Every structure is written in C-alpha cells, then in structure tokens.
Amino acid sequence: MTYPVIMRCPVCNDRLKVVSLHCSQCNTKFEGSFHLDKFSYLSQEQKSFIEVFLKCRGNIKEVEKELNISYPTVRGKLDDVVQALGCTDTTGRKASKNRKEILEMLSEGEIAYDEAMRLLKEKD
C-alpha cells in the first residue's frame, strides 16, 4: 500500500525535504537532499482547485458553475494559490484595474454585479 507524501512537519509545520529515493523494481536507493517543485507544497484543496481551473481553461464563470461558488470565492481561491506558489500578490492588481476594465469584466460576465460595485467603490 502506498501513501501520499506528507509535505509539512506535523510538529512545527515547516516544509519537509526528500532525503531518500528507492526503486521498488531493482531495489536501488539514492540518498541526498532532493527538492520538490512548488506545486508539491500546495494543499489538496489548492490542487483540486487548480485542476478545475485548468479544466475550465481559466474561465472564471465556468469555475463558478463547476464548484458552485461565487466569483469572489473563485478569485479568493485563485489568489490563495498564486500566493502559495510565491508569485506576485494579486490583490494590488485587482485594486489597480481602471473603471473601464471593471465594466468590461462585468459585461463579459467575468464578475458579478456586487463584485463590480465593490471594485468601483475601491476606485473612488
């Protein structure tokens, strides 16, 4: 029986490192300090969200329907994944949208009316 690799220390919650690899076919063992890609450290919830997001080809309205959640929740989950990957914080990017971009997003159905109103109020 195989188990998923745990990525965080259950004591201090720090990232764990891989120090041993084993081939079950030929019994070869490798020891050292191996790094994992940054996607490995995402939570299972974040990985599931990415899978749905990619399946929907990044269409937020489709992600809303697939997960039965609101636009702000989709954006929040996306921002969470972006932050967990160590990428640029997206909250500044949302606030920097101009009025025209916000209205275009609303007309294309990318954001709900309430979200558009909130973003427009932030601009004032």
Give an overview of the whole structure:
- The chain is mainly alpha-helical.
- It contains six helices and two strands.
- It has helices spanning 44-55, 60-67, 71-84, 91-95, 99-107, 113-123, and strands at 18-22, 29-34.
- The protein has a two-stranded antiparallel ribbon.
- Helix 2 packs across helix 3 (71-84) and helix 5 packs antiparallel against helix 6.
- The longest helix is centred in the middle third of the chain and has 14 residues, at 71-84.
- The chain is elongated and about 60 Å long.
Q: Quick gist of this model?
A:
The chain has 124 residues and is mostly helical. It has 6 helices and 2 strands; from the N terminus they run E-E-H-H-H-H-H-H. A hairpin with a 6-residue loop joins strand 1 and strand 2.
